[in-house]
Specification:
This protein is an alpha/beta fold. It has three domains: 168 residues, Rossmann fold (3-Layer(aba) Sandwich), CATH 3.40.50; 157 residues, 2-Layer Sandwich (Dihydrodipicolinate Reductase, domain 2); 86 residues, 2-Layer Sandwich (Alpha-Beta Plaits). It contains 14 helices and 16 strands. α2 packs parallel to α12. It is elongated and about 85 Å long. The chain binds NADPH dihydro-nicotinamide-adenine-dinucleotide phosphate and L-homoserine.
Amino acid sequence: MNPVKVGLLGLGTVGGGTVNVLTRNAQEIARRAGRGIIVTHALARGLNKPRICDTRGMILTTRPEEVVNDVEIAIVVELIGGDSLAFELVMQAIANGKHVVTANKALIAKHGNEIFAAAQKQGVMVAFEAAVAGGIPIIKAIREGLAGNKIEWLAGIINGTGNFILTEMRDKGRDFADVLKEAQQLGYAEADPTFDVEGIDAAHKLTILAAIAFGIPLQFDKVYTEGISGITGTDVSYAEQLGYRIKHLGIARHTDTGVELRVHPTLIPERRLIANVDGVMNAVLVHADAVGPTLYYGAGAGADPTASAVVADLVDVVRALTSDPENRVPHLAFQPDALANFPILPMEQVETGYYLRMHAADRPGVLAEVTRILGDQGISIEAMLQKEPPTEAMGATIIMLTQRVVEKNMNRAIEQIQQLDAILSEVIRIRMEYLD
Ligand code: NDP
Ligand code: HSE
């Protein structure tokens, strides 16, 4: 049988990696797919830029229409990133009856509902395994492997750059900006790295995970998002003294009242496996009713790991080319007409534990005032550390871990604590999860 022709939009880190994996493992891939897969065209901005892959044998172009309108190309692989040109080109490819593979989480999180509707109408597939957690086959695991379960919650380290930065800061005391620069050189970071450090990239991925886990539409604008740029070595060190690690987590939980969708730094007990996921590695912990907890671990970014997911999608699409569109795995795991409208809970209604750090005047009664305010809001203290002040002006450092409480009550308590004369600094708050 003739090989399937593929057009790449983008030939950077992931595009180059995809060509390399397709070339290196051509025979294995053909044995799995039942046909060879060859890249005939690739779009880039610069035709003379050095590439990480061999481009001989393919047409390199700066004109996207040469790829998306080519009648010979059966599958368009979108790897340029962003959600404007990428969206236009993906919609054009679908309109032309082409199947699409993409690693672009921003595109799927923001425009996925529209893209999938168009694809369904045209009877084509849109595959996006590489969009979440790099090389980990998490989409397939949730969409197919856990299809018999009711998924209760999931929590993941789903940004490689952010985890790399936190790990290097903790283990080597390195400077935030310096580690970010290295992540960019290694090809891990987004074109706009604030997406990595401010949690936007993780929010894109969480949007996708929640949709396929709970059977809800993609709702990126409802994700509560907080990044890692405010995390200091001081909090990392106090967390460790209390037996916790700070990780940047994406958390989606299906509760009786609605769905929690949140991305923020989180203290987790250091004995949890996921607390020990370091560097560019990602991990997603999924809690489902029948199987219980399952944990998925692997490289979250980089050329070859991400290409592994892109090529797996290509193999899936090639295998299903002749299948009846009605009998394919639905894009969002649940049948499109069976998606549910569960409300997404505002952050004020979310319940978590908290780590609090504050500086307080070193005099009798201060602690009693703080604990009274917490008590009035129904907040129980689980652990506490007090460090003597290096100078009287700085005050003593008080660190508290609290039991779970709704965020609204914690907001009220922090507001009141902050107003006490004896509190000399901003009250730092980091959320805490046991993940048990
Ligand atoms: P790169 O910046 O390395 O590559 C982007 C490619 O797209 C480049 O080849 C670039 O051309 C081309 N391109 C960009 N804009 C245009 C344009 N307007 N016209 C023509 N070509 C264009 O990005 P990555 O490979 O890192 O990322 C690609 C996608 O994969 C993104 O959506 C990203 O979020 C996602 N992703 C990335 C991962 C990673 O580890 N890097 C992991 C998982 C997903 P040129 O080379 O000439 O500049
Ligand atoms: N910038 C992303 C990350 C790439 O660091 O996780 C993988 O999606």
